[in-house]
Amino acid sequence: MTPALAAGLQIALVVAVLAVLYVPLGDYMAKVYTTDGPRTKDLRIESILYRACRIDSHAEQTWYGYATSVLGFSLASALLLYGLQRVQGVLPLNNDLEGISPAVAFNTAISFVTNTNWQSYVPETTMNPLTQSAGLAVQNFVSAAVGMGVAVALIRGLVRVGRGGEIGNFWVDLTRGTLRILLPLSFVIALALLSQGVIQSYRSGFAATGLDGHTLTTALAPVASQEAIKVLGTNGGGVLAANSAHPFENPTPVSNIVEIIALLLIPVALTRTFGTMVGHRRQGLTVLAVMAILYTAMLAVTLAAESRTHGVAADAAGTMLEGKEVRFGIPGSALFAVSTTGTSTGAVNSAHDSMSPLGGGAVLLNMLFGEIAPGGAGTGLYGILVIAMVAVFVGGLLVGRTPEFLGKKLRTREITLAALSILVMPALVLIGTAIAVVLPATAGALGNSGDPGTPGAIHGYTEVLYAYASAANNNGSAFGGLTVTNDWFQASLGMCMLFGRFLPIVFVLALAGSLASAQRVPAGAGTLPTSGVAFAGLLTGTAVLVAALTFFPALALGPIAEALH
């Protein structure tokens, strides 16, 4: 079977499964998050949690209250996770592992609370099962639920009319998203992974004799349960260092497809949720079409680039297998790479650092779009809706009308908040990269170096750019040639994750509150339609233009220069 045919069959299977689940899952999530009209009855466990935490589940919050709850919950989560890592050596199930150093514990706590899951350590020799399960796995659930809640809050802001700015209750959205969506789906995915041979064990490992006669210890862990939410919640942090390239995490081509479907499932279905909640499902289909256009373009570039090396066939089949698992091949690796960088997941089943310059540049650009194709759990939807408002503003200037989106007039405040939300990530990426490349300590951290202008130096720069793009976009994948264990990278990447997650959330929630308090205006003859082919083209062009204008110089110095060398 040729790589092209294999890729086509895998893509067709992924699309078919997503198409089958799109309507029922999207409508189900809309029902879960709908609080207007007759309330969805709380589950018994939800009522117990509300009473225990003294939460009034019937009270709604303004954007300020919602944002304060998000930040307070995330701060408490980070402190608890930091503390758990520091004292893991004296807790049960320590497996002879000591407490984590302050720098690594800080970076990891920020990483998992922000849904980034950047890992600057070897999981199986650093984190014990208790820290993995009670700390990291819990954050895999709740950090995803936070992103989904923020997306739904923005939808409520678009739907509601003059209600004083209430956009829902964060604690209810967090609880329902975790218990009603993420837990059931992750249980089903975990069973599917177990059927393919993914392990689930609390043993520390087992000893075996290798082919050379030496004894080696193979690590074990409760992988299946954590792998499921790792991909479903667009988290990405692996229980084992090789991540989804490890046969214990991703043993077969079937498990590879299951994980890719899980990566895309919630971000794709949320577009249906959006269309259902606003009462105009063509709006959701338009957003989905834009996501599909960007995703398909990046996949086509990556597949083409990875099938050849610098324009020269690597073997008779024209494939480049360096850094890839042969059980997945080029199609499975490229499909996974584009899916993981397009969904803010960061899980990997191949070494992105070993990709061709053009292939590596494509997955890097996938993140620099703002991870909206289709984006993370919740983050992709609110990210593309913010860009849609900017597109409406541009379109309004072209037709000479005040911009309107779903019947809400976009005033100076809304456009300012949308612009600030978009600008956070580029500022973090470009400033962080600029500082890092001039620091003397960075030279020792690079696996690729050389005189300025040489391929080694160019690739080393791309490794740094990729790291800050991954951190600021809450992705978590990396070009493995960059060693990020020194205090500068631990601190600076941690701050990029922190600001890259929570500044846009605050701006988006403020935008939701502003829209919720606005009155609906009747559509006029000159109102720009926000569904259909024309608007899909405008939205796609706006997304590409924002990324191209912002990052083209940086990309020209890295992957583009390396590809042309």
What does this structure look like?
This protein has 565 residues and is mostly helical. It has 2 domains: 11-206 and 217-278, no CATH class; 383-564, no CATH class. It contains 18 helices and 4 strands. It has helices at 3-33, 44-52, 63-86, 102-113, 123-126, 129-159, 170-195, 223-232, 253-277, 281-306, 329-342, 357-368, 379-399, 412-438, 440-445, 455-472, 487-516, 533-564; strands at 205-209, 215-219, 404-405, 408-409. The strands form 2 sheets. It has a two-stranded antiparallel ribbon with strand order 1-2. A two-stranded antiparallel ribbon has the order 3-4. The longest helix is centred in the last third of the chain and has 32 residues, at 533-564. The chain starts with a helix and ends with a helix. Mean pLDDT is 89; it is low at 310-319.
Spell out the key features of this protein.
globular; mainly alpha; 565 residues; single chain
Question: Summed up, what is this model?
Answer:
This protein is 63% helix and 2% strand. It has 565 residues and is mostly helical.
